[in-house]
Amino acid sequence: MRIAVLKERAAGESRVAMTPETVKKFIALGATVAVEEGAGAGASIPDEAFSEAGAEVLAGKKAVAGADIVLGVQAPEVAALSGAKDGAWVAATFDPFRNGELVEAYAKAGFEALSMEFMPRITRAQSMDVLSSQSNLAGYKAVIASADEYGRAFPMMMTAAGTVQAAKCFVMGVGVAGLQAIATAKRLGAQVSATDVRSATKEQIMSLGAKPVFVESVEGIEGEGSGGYATEMSEEYQKAQAELVSSHIAKQDIVITTALIPGRPAPRLISDAQIATMKPGSVIFDLAVARGGNVEGSKPDETVVKHGVKIIGFSNTSAHLAADASALFARNLYNFLSAFWDQDAGKPVLDEEIGDAVRLTQGGKVVNERLTAQ
Ligand code: NAD
């Protein structure tokens, strides 16, 4: 079983899908590992560290030659896979709802695309879940980047020259990223409040010592919904939410938005008129900016100033923490493949529950129900 890792080719992608730690672990399972030269540079992992761990470090296309499995952070174009074995597996993020052409190309080329975003949200797959590991770091980075842009301090400080007031931070969307944003803002000393459409998050917000701010007049999503994800809300709910946000947001210094709906553009949570009610110097970080944005006017990788409020957001937030993000991503991939490793067969053999969930293409066809049902 030969596993290959290519240098990421997408613009701004600094992560890598394997680390020296997981190289050793894959070799211990009986695999050989090939890493493209320079693959770890963006994550501060030199080629020597990969060789010392036992990987063959090879230039360009040689890395992928004869591979049974190719690992990636963002799935490579099919052209970069030439030389891999027929029917090779490619485990990476595919962004399948937005990358239909890429998925089709994988089918046509006979590769088996395994989309890590489609990992089911079940207990045994938690350690394989790249969305969680990357969102967690992104939630942290959003607060740190906002603190950096904010011209004031986060914690209350009593000084001889007078008191510095604590920043008020509002987190919208309390999934994995939102929870980490709340925890980080609390640690920095901000007064934190948070909201979500899923009522199950109320208790989680309070357990982190933050204040829940919820629409009470219209019912939100009870329980965990489908796999714990949100859906699009009714017009009535959206109106009630907009009113609630309008009255709350004017008093906030920092707003972190994280709301996402799988397979849909991000819901719009903050309008330009609402931004206009905020104090000049306030900062909004739109973690959903690459998915269409939660905030009117936000632009990926730009600082947009509207009504004196700075609106920021990165196109790839976890890539701003490339070393930790790669370490966790690489472990997710290792946990996934090793959980299914069949010692007799000397390769992973996927089961239906997880295999069918993540497999996009097989035998020349697109086979994933979430794509074929569209
Ligand atoms: P996500 O990234 O899809 O969305 C972020 C948050 O935005 C969610 O909490 C969502 O409810 C919220 N949101 C959506 N529309 C909104 C709106 N209009 N207004 C306000 N908030 C809105 O979510 P996620 O971080 O992937 O997590 C979703 C859930 O899945 C969580 O409950 C999480 O604990 C659970 N989860 C389970 C597992 C597992 O069991 N393996 C793994 C990861 C996450």
UniProtKB/TrEMBL annotation:
InterPro entries: Ala_DH/PNT_CS2 (IPR008143), AlaDH/PNT_N (IPR007886), AlaDH/PNT_NAD(H)-bd (IPR007698), NAD(P)-bd_dom_sf (IPR036291). One of its GO terms (cellular component) is plasma membrane. The keyword NAD applies. Pfam families: AlaDh_PNT_C, AlaDh_PNT_N. It catalyses: NAD(+) + NADPH + H(+)(in) = NADH + NADP(+) + H(+)(out). GO terms for molecular function: NADP binding; oxidoreductase activity; proton-translocating NAD(P)+ transhydrogenase activity. Residues 147-313 form the Alanine dehydrogenase/pyridine nucleotide transhydrogenase NAD(H)-binding domain. Residues 4-138 form the Alanine dehydrogenase/pyridine nucleotide transhydrogenase N-terminal domain. One of its GO terms (biological process) is NADPH regeneration. Its EC number is 7.1.1.1. Keywords: NAD, NADP, Nucleotide-binding, Translocase. The keyword Nucleotide-binding applies. It is an enzyme of class 7 (translocase). Belongs to the AlaDH/PNT family. The transhydrogenation between NADH and NADP is coupled to respiration and ATP hydrolysis and functions as a proton pump across the membrane. This is proton-translocating NAD(P)(+) transhydrogenase. The lineage of its organism: Bacteria, Pseudomonadati, Pseudomonadota, Alphaproteobacteria, Sphingomonadales.
